[in-house]
């Protein structure tokens, strides 16, 4: 709710600070006292147009600050958080109007734009009675209001969900059809690539093995010479190392029989002999296996060259080439099933269209019944608000295609006078009539989405017993939402939870507007003034007390 409002240098207001409370806040005062300026200030907070004409004469700029208490308004807090505004249950909004009409906006202490201000604050306050910033004048809101009254919001949400699915499936099908020619070219390319890799029959680690074998074949003569020479030196030559070592071992072993300290030496020499003997035999076998094979070398060169060509196309290693083939085969599977995918999408679209048709028919029926009930209720409520001959209707326009809200648009039509055909609200309803329309609607369909409602002179043209009825209806709305109402009727003012008097004051030769909180006898005196004008008698005061007491009951 709106907790505090501070206005500086706006029109005839020098500096004004007003505190509001939950429930029904009534603003009264003589004509021209500045009540409408307070509404203009709130309108600036709603993102309304700022004009240099609003700046008080002699001042450099005008400003309006509003402090909102959003306790318990989780949806609003979530929306603010999504906009990057952390308000911790309280939101401070400031609008500054400079010469030339330029504005600066501050939300939660940070600089912001007028569009963001409008987007946020339209969820905080609705003004009824001014032709700017009103939901009743926004035709796109009429269907939503009707659906809320008709109890069709859940059905509408279900339809919207099907509509979103339908739109997504249509876009997917369109993208599929647009890409079919390109898909065919892509299919040929991928098939070639997959076949080329598959025909190569490469395996991980193969390249390293082939390179190793190629190295051996290229140096076969050197390998054979080295291994044969080593064998001859160890075992097969004229003076083999193993033959000489055998004599050495025999001599040390003989000495070891004299001195046991040489036994370990003898054993070590025997072990070395065995190892050398094994190595020499291995060298002999290796030399026998090594051979020159030009045909095999050419075969290896061809295979390594084929792998190299694949690496240039598909990856830096065999592993990467095989991973690329896996991805290609996966895409091939998808592209090969395009026709099946097309059929699935077409079937999905058809099913969703059938579901939307069924849901849309239910919505249309609920809206038709709701419009009939709304007409009866609104005309009954308007008659109680001194508009006995008012006509309220809902006009429907069937769309060629479904929208997220259904198959039809709705617009409220209104005629305040007998003999006049009902016309769109924006073209015919005056500020006072519009306020009464919303007040009537709130009796039929109370909701608390917007925390604060402002009714500007909702009682225009009303008198007698109907006046008290307006007060009762405002009080009823104020049980769910904070209500600010400007009134000239004492019967309405008597219902206030918080009564604020707006009046002009002259100081230092300049006129300024002030606001006083009225309590006790001060409030009685103001209601009495509203009853009788300038001349207040004891009888008038007693009548004022009776009005206030009756309103409290």
Automatic annotation (TrEMBL):
Keywords: ATP-binding, Coiled coil, DNA damage, DNA repair, Nucleotide-binding. Residues 2-504 form the RecF/RecN/SMC N-terminal domain. Residues 335-369 form a coiled coil. It comes from the Bacteria. The keyword Nucleotide-binding applies. May be involved in recombinational repair of damaged DNA. Belongs to the RecN family. This is DNA repair protein RecN.
């Amino acid at each position: 709710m709106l907790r505090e409002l501070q206005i500086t240098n706006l029109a005839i207001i020098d500096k004004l600070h007003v505190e509001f409370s939950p429930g029904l806040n009534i603003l009264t005062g003589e004509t021209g006292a500045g009540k409408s300026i307070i509404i203009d200030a709130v309108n600036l907070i709603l993102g309304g147009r700022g004009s240099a004409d609003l700046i008080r004469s002699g001042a450099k700029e005008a400003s309006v600050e509003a402090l909102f208490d959003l306790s318990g308004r989780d949806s609003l807090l979530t929306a603010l958080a999504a906009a990057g505004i952390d308000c911790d249950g309280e939101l401070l909004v400031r609008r500054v109007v400079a010469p030339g009409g330029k504005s600066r906006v501050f939300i939660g202490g940070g600089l912001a734009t007028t569009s963001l201000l409008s987007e946020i604050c339209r969820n905080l306050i609705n003004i009824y009675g001014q032709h700017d910033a009103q939901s009743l004048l926004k035709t796109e809101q009429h269907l939503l209001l009707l659906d809320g009254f008709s109890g069709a919001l859940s059905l509408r949400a279900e339809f919207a969900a099907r509509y979103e699915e339908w739109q997504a499936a249509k876009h997917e099908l369109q993208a599929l059809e647009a890409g079919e020619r390109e898909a065919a070219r892509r299919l040929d390319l991928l098939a070639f690539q997959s076949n080329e890799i598959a025909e190569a029959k490469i395996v991980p680690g193969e390249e390293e093995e082939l390179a190793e074998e190629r190295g051996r074949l290229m140096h076969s003569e050197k390998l054979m010479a080295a291994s044969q020479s080593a064998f001859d030196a160890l075992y097969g030559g004229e003076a083999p190392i193993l033959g000489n070592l055998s004599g050495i071992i025999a001599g040390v072993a003989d000495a070891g029989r004299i001195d046991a300290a040489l036994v370990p030496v003898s054993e070590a020499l025997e072990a070395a002999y065995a190892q050398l003997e094994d190595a020499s035999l291995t060298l002999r076998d290796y030399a026998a296996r090594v051979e020159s094979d030009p045909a095999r070398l050419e075969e290896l060169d061809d295979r390594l060259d084929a792998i190299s060509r694949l690496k240039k196309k598909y990856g830096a290693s065999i592993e990467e080439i095989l991973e690329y083939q896996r991805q290609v085969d996966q895409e091939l599977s998808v592209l090969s099933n395009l026709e099946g995918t097309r059929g699935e999408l077409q079937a999905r679209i058809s099913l969703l269209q059938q579901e939307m048709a069924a849901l849309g028919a239910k919505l249309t029926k609920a809206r038709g019944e709701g419009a009939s009930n709304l007409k009866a209720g609104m005309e009954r409520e308007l008659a109680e608000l001194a508009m006995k001959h008012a006509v309220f209707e809902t006009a429907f326009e069937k769309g060629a295609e479904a929208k997220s809200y259904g198959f039809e648009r709705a617009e409220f039509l209104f005629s305040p006078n007998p003999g006049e055909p009902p016309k769109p609200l924006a073209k015919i309803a005056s500020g006072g009539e519009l306020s009464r329309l919303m007040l009537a609607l709130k009796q039929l369909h109370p909701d608390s989405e917007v925390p604060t409602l402002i009714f500007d002179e909702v009682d225009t043209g009303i008198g007698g017993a109907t006046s008290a009825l307006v007060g009762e209806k405002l009080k009823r709305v104020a049980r769910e939402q904070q209500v600010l109402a400007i009134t000239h009727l004492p019967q309405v003012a008597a219902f206030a939870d918080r009564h604020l008097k707006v009046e002009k004051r002259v100081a230092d030769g300049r006129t300024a507007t002030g606001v006083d909180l009225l309590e006790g006898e001060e409030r009685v005196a103001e209601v009495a003034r509203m009853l009788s004008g300038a001349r207040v008698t004891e009888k008038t005061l007693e009548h004022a007390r009776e009005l206030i007491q009756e309103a409290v009951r």
